[in-house]
Amino acid sequence: MALLPTLPTSFVPPSASSAVSAYRSSALSFFAYAILGIVFVLATGVFLYGRLLASELSSKETALREAEAAIDPATVSSFVRLRDRLASGETLLDGHIAFSGFFTSLEKLLPTTVRFSTLHLSVDTAGIPKVEGTGSAKSFNALAAASTAFAQDGRIKDAIFSNIIINEDSSVSFVLSAALDPKLTVFLP
Amino acid sequence: MNNRIPPLIALAVAVGIFFAYVSPTWSGTIAVTKIAIASDDKALAAASEYATQQNELADARNNIDTTDLTRLTTLLPDSVDNVVLILDLNALAARSGLLLSNVDVMKSDAKSANSINTGALPATGVSPVGSIDLSLSAVGTYDAFRAFLTGVEKSARLLDVRDLVVKGSDTGLYVYKMTLRLYWLR
Questions:
Q1: Within a domain: residue A154?
Q2: Does B159 lie in the same domain as B86?
C-alpha cells in the first residue's frame, strides 16, 4: 500500500537554514519583479512622453511656419525705409544750412560806405560755416565802423580784416575772413 | 537554487530595458525634442512680438497724413534723379530772374552722406543716405540771387548750399558760383 504524499515521512523538523533560504528566494523574487514592474512603467511613461513631445513639437513647428509665412518682406522693407527716411530727414534738416540769414544780417550790419567785391561762403569739414571776402571802404573810419558792427553783433565771429591798403583817394581795400555763428545760417521754415 | 533563476532573469531584463531604452531615450530623443520645443517657443514669442509691433507700426504709419508722407519722400527721394532737379533749378532761376549756366555734378561717385563728415549726420554705422554735389554758375542781380537762394533753401527736395562765391561788378550784375549738396535714400 502506497503512502499519501502529504503524509510526513519523518518526524525530524526541517532545518533553520532551509527556511532562511526560502525566505531569501521569495525576497529576491519580490525585489526583481518589483524592479521589472517599475522599469516597465518607466519605459511606458518615457514612450508616451516622447510621443507627446513629438506631437507638441510638430504643432509648434506648424505654427512657426505659419507665422513665418505671415511675415511680408515688402512690408518690413517699407517700415525700415520709412524709419530711415524719418530719422535721416530729421538729422539733415537739423543741419540744413541757409546762407540767406547771413546776407540779411550783412545788409543790416554793413555800412553803405563799405562794399564787397568778392564773397566766399563755405562750410568747413567740421560743419562750421565761414566767410572770406575782399572789398573796399570809402575810408578807414567806415571800415572801423564795419568791424565794430561785426563785433557788436557777435554772430560774425573772429572777423579779421587783413591786407588793408589805403588808396590814393583815401579809400581802403581789405580782405575779410571770419567764422559764422551756426545760428546765423540755421534754416527757419 | 532553481527558484532564483526567474527573478534573476527578470532583474536582468529590467536592467536591460532601463539602459537600452529608458535612459538613452530620456537623455537623447526627449532631451533633443525639449530643446527644439524651447527654441520654437522663443521663435513663436518673437513672431508674436513682431506681429504686435507690425500692427502698431501700421497704425502709426496710417496716422501720418499721406500728403506729409509724399512731402517726406520728396524731401529725401529714393533715387538721385539729378536731371529732374537740374530742370527744377533752371525753372527756379528763370522765375527768380537769374541766368543759370554750367550745371554739373562735381563727384561722379555716389557717396554716403556720413562718410564725408557733413557735420549733419551721425558718423556711426552705415548711413542709408547718399549724397552728391552739384556745381552751378549764374549771373544776375543781387535781388534775383536772393530770391534764387531762398528758393533753394526752401526747396521741397533738401538742398544744402555747401559753397558760394559771389563776384561783384560795376554793372549791377553779379557772378555766382554755388555748390549744392543733394541727398537721397539709398
A1: yes
A2: yes
Dihedral over Cα of B164, B161, B135, B127: its sign = positive
Residues of A in contact with B10 (CB under 8 A): 32-33, 35-36
Residue B59: partners with Cβ closer than 8 Å, 6 or more residues away: none
CA distance B129 to chain A (A): 7
Measured over the CA atoms of residue B30, residue B33, residue B34 and residue B35, the dihedral's sign is: positive
- Residue bearing the bigger pLDDT, B170 or B81: B81
Looking at this predicted complex, what is its ipTM? 0.74
Q: Look at residue B119 in the predicted model and tell me its pLDDT.
A: 44
pLDDT-above-90 percentage for chain A: 52
What lies within 8 Å, CB to CB, of B127 at 6+ separation is A88, B112, B113, B114, B115, B121
Domain that holds residue B160: 75-185
Which residue among B34, B36, B165 sits closest to A120, beta carbon to beta carbon?
B165
